[in-house]
Amino acid sequence: MNATDSILRLGSRFGVLMLIAGAILWGIYHYGDKIGLNTLQAKLYFCLGLGILILLFRYGGRIVQFILGRHLKGQGAPLTSGQHLKPASQSHRAVIEMRQTLRRQYGRFGAGNMTILMLTGSVADVERLAPGLSSQYWQENGDTLLLWGGEPQSASDNDWLFALRKRFCPPVNGLVWVTSAFDHLPAANQHVSPALLSMEDIDNIAHDLAERFSLLGWAVPLYVWSLHPQADDQAGRIVQSVGSLFPPDCQSSQMRQLLSALPSRLLETGVQQVTGNPQHHFLLGLADQLTRQPERISVPLSTFLEPHRALPLAGVVFSPSSPQASHSLKHHWRHDKRWDVLLESLRPSGLKARKIGFPWRRAVSASTAALMLLWAASMTVSFIANRHLVAIAQQQVQQASAGKQPLAVRLHALSALQKTLSQLEYRSQHGAPWYLRAGLSQNDDLLAALFPRYGEMSQPLLRDAAAHHLEEQLTAFVQLPPDSPLREKMTKTAYGQLKQYLMLTRPEKMDAAWFATTLMQDWPQRSGIADAVWQGSGPSLLAFYAASLASHPQWRLPVDDGLVSQVRTRLIRQLGQRNSESTLYQKMLAQVANQYADMRLADMTADTDASRLFSTDEVVPGMFTRQAWEQAVQPAIEKSGRGTPAMKWTGC
User: Fold this and answer.
1) pLDDT, tens only, 262-290
2) Whole-number Å distance between alpha carbons of 70 and 63
3) Residue 243 falls within a domain, yes or no?
4) Residue 185 CB: number of other CB atoms within 10 A?
5) Cα–Cα distance, 584 to 641 (Å, whole number)
6) 144: closest CA among 121, 116, 165?
7) Residue 3 lies in a domain
8) Residue 297 and residue 182: Cα distance in Å, rounded?
9) Can you list the alpha helix ranges (DSSP code H) found in 178-336?
């Protein structure tokens, strides 16, 4: 672990928190109205309250502990006889001392630059390699931190391992199993080699090492350090790093090949050392052992690589014991060249520590990266789709506004532009498709930009052309001679034409469906365009313009007051508007005249004999009876009264 890893880890956490917070704020800002947050102030208060609740949920326990600690410290009450302090364990004291020492010497984040190794094995073997580590729990030299991992076949110090798990992330960069069980070098007073470790012992050690990985919560590279105490009497020998590193996911066959290649590298240096001093035979003895009896090391280590166990075995190191030189500085570790091969191997990516269990950090990182890629792809698709939509709309505007183009081409382009506007209006009300969103949607902006251009182009092509046609028809009606029989025939048509003309001048009275249908019936042919094309596209063109006129009153047609006044005068005279109410009443009475029976005097008196008081042969027509009034006359009058105001705005 180094400072860069720490910074990246903190940055990734901060980035994820900012991403989540940004998503929550965005959701509250855009969808807060659905949960009652209707004002910006309410949304702000909600966000502040949510942030306070999250902080209390995350750090509430620490805040309470801090407050209680300050309170008890302020009181300064002594312990009663029934109270006692639980003695802190040696491992707990070691963690506190290590944290304080590292922070004092290297700063709060200084430990991030250090390589952390945990040594496990028998106390005797570990003391031969790192004197004083088993009792001091930790040693450091500025670049490397050694930690005591306990004996493999004894109970683990859970407090120590849990404390390390919380202190560092990952807690260690590598686990080193120190053992002298592979020492079969010949000694001056010994000719019989010790017995090999049994397979049961190797299985137990592998199980204990896997348990340490579980307690640490991380799977870290495992190194086997083979100590050779029988070579300790070689004082003055030049120390070098001897070992073989294994690739990630190493197989047993690969390990045997790497170990078999080691003796050839040891011979040259070993011969030089023996030539200088015959007692310095460690390298030659090790080469001889690996050549004659390689299975003494490869067979036990193959157990670690079995598929059902698959411990991350990263290499094996060979060395004599460390010189037992006394040093008074506690927690200080003397580094020598024997450690070079191991420390240099901790940096490759294949030998990095990985967290046991579901890789949440990797999953979050991968999800964030996938989300960013998806968002980038969505933005790319949205950019292309919006650019294509803008380009099509621009092309339609250019074709519709080209005065030199044939009328059919301009109307076709105007019809396509109307379809684009209808599509944009629908998307504005119901939302744009996903491929047009991603923060790049130009739907509303394009809609706001196209409608003024559409109004400019549709006025000469639709409004002015329709007004010209209606004015010609109304002028022809006005110019008819007073005694012309065409006046009676053209009155109803002229009234409809006047109504259409007035709708163009008064957008609030526009009835788009009726306007388009009636106008096309009166205007089936248009000069400059084929009849079939006009009759096919005309209704939709006129209907869309009429529907849009109410929301754009600035498109209204300037009214010709003189023409309208003349048409109204002719229509009033022809329709008899002055006595229209009496005409309607007479027509209504004629409809109910034969539906109800006449009423005589006997019918009015019912069972009473009124002949002695009254006598008459007169009758009351059935249309004037109470029954006719309630069932036919009164409803007809009310219906006629409701229909009259709708016609009055035309002035005739």
Assistant:
1) 999 999 888 988 888 888 888 999 999 89
2) 11
3) yes
4) 20
5) 11
6) 116
7) yes
8) 7
9) 199-216, 252-260, 262-276, 282-292, 295-302
Of 576 and 78, more confident: 576
User: What are the C-alpha distances in Å from 415 to residues 528, 538, 550?
Assistant: 16, 9, 19
User: What's the token pair of residue 273?
Assistant: 């050392």
User: Could you tell me which residues are beta bridge partners of residue 175?
Assistant: 118, 222
At 396, which amino acid appears?
Q
CATH assignment at residue 163: 3.40.50
Strands 144-148 and 115-121: parallel
Structurally, the chain folds into a number of domains equal to 4
- Residue 136: half-sphere exposure toward Cβ, Cα within 13 Å: 19
Task: Kindly state whether residues 466 and 600 are assigned to the same domain.
Answer: no
**Higher per-residue pLDDT: 297 or 348:** 297
274 in the same domain as 414: no
Same domain, 557 and 603: no
Q: Is 582 exposed, middle or buried (0-12, 13-18, 19+ CB in 10 A)?
A: exposed
Of 26, 46, 64, the domain-final residue: 64
Domain range spanning residue 5?
Answer: 1-64
In the block, residue with structure tokens 């080209």: 402
Structure tokens at 440: 């790049």
Would you tell me how many other CB atoms lie within 10 Å of the CB of residue 309?
A: 14
CB-CB neighbours of 428 under 10 Å: 15
- Please, which residues bridge with residue 120 across strands? 177
pTM, rounded to two decimals = 0.53
Looking at the structure, tell me whether residues 298 and 395 fall in a common domain.
no
Phi, psi of 349 (to 5 degrees): -65, -30
CA distance 285 to 291: 10
In contact, 318 and 338? CB cutoff 8 Å: no
In this structure, the answer to whether residues 501 and 593 fall within a common structural domain is no
Asked if residue 611 and residue 500 are part of one domain, the reply reads no
Q: Copy the structure tokens of residue 131.
A: 């004197």
Q: Are residues 516 and 500 in the same domain?
A: yes
Cis peptide before 170 (omega within 30 of 0): yes
Position with higher pLDDT, 178 vs 92: 178
360 in any annotated domain: no
Rounded-to-integer distance, Cα 103 and Cα 111, Å: 8
Is position 354 within any domain?
no
Residues 6+ apart with CB under 8 A from 34: none
Give the span between the Cα atoms of 444 and 483, in whole angstroms.
58
**Band of pLDDT at residue 652, cut at 50, 70 and 90:** low
Task: Identify the weakest region by mean pLDDT among 210-224, 477-491, 603-617.
Answer: 603-617
Asked whether the beta carbons of 53 and 43 are under 8 A apart, the reply is: no
Residue type, 95: V
Q: Which helix (H) or strand (E) holds 244?
A: strand 242-245
Q: End of a domain among 515, 546, 575?
A: 575
Tokens of 61: 């326990």
Helix, strand, coil content of the chain in percent (nearest 5): 65, 5, 30
Lookup: tokens for 406: 């044939």
Query: DSSP H helical segments within 511-608, as ranges?
Result: 512-522, 531-549, 561-575, 580-592, 601-605
- Which whole number is the average pLDDT over 322-339? 77
Please give the C-alpha separations between residue 434 and each of 111, 385, 427, in angstroms, as whole numbers.
Answer: 48, 10, 11
Same domain for 496 and 383: yes
Measured between alpha carbons, how far is 643 from 652 in angstroms, rounded to an integer?
13
